[in-house]
Amino acid sequence: MEKLIFVYNADSGKLKSLIGAFQKVVNPDSYDCNLCKLTYGAFDEKKAWRDFRKNGDLDMEFLHRDEFLKNYASKFGHKFEFPIILAQNQKGLEVLVSTSELKEIMDVEELISRIKERT
């Protein structure tokens, strides 16, 4: 595996980030990105996630939906649901943790465990 690609179900930009943070606080059930909920609090990255990301030996790339579509969709021709975690290898992109799986994961520790099991 060359690297993991984490794609958030949100578009890039400061205004969109502020709107997302507000939505997570005011009405968290309506927020549409479980990957965001698992890895970030309202404003900051969760410590367990930051430690995993910084101390691991996995090459990871983090993209918003619009950035992924701009950089990867035309190369690989895949249509994915977001959020998603993909593994890029010599064959292309493979789903490591699907959108539906991310919805079922309850906390960041479970997410980290799932990633470790599959890499």
- The helix count comes to 6
Name the helicity range.
40-55%
Number of domain modules = 1
Number of strands: 4
Q: Average pLDDT, to the nearest integer?
A: 83
Features:
single chain, 119 residues, alpha+beta, four-stranded mixed beta sheet, 48% helix, 19% strand
Task: Please give a structural write-up.
β3 and β4 (92-97) form a beta hairpin. A 4-stranded mixed beta sheet has the order 2-1-3-4, sandwiched between helices. It has one domain (3-118). The mean pLDDT is 83. The radius of gyration is 14 Å and the shape is globular. It is built from 6 helices and 4 strands. It starts with a strand and ends with a helix. Helices cover 48% and strands 19% of the residues. It has helices at 14-26, 34-39, 47-55, 65-76, 99-104, 108-118, and strands spanning 3-8, 60-64, 84-89, 92-97. By secondary structure, the chain is of the alpha+beta class.
Tell me briefly what this model is.
The chain has helices spanning about 15-25, 35-40, 45-55, 65-75, 100-105, 110-119, and strands spanning about 5-10, 60-65, 85-90, 90-95. The protein has about 120 residues and is α+β, with helices and mostly antiparallel strands.
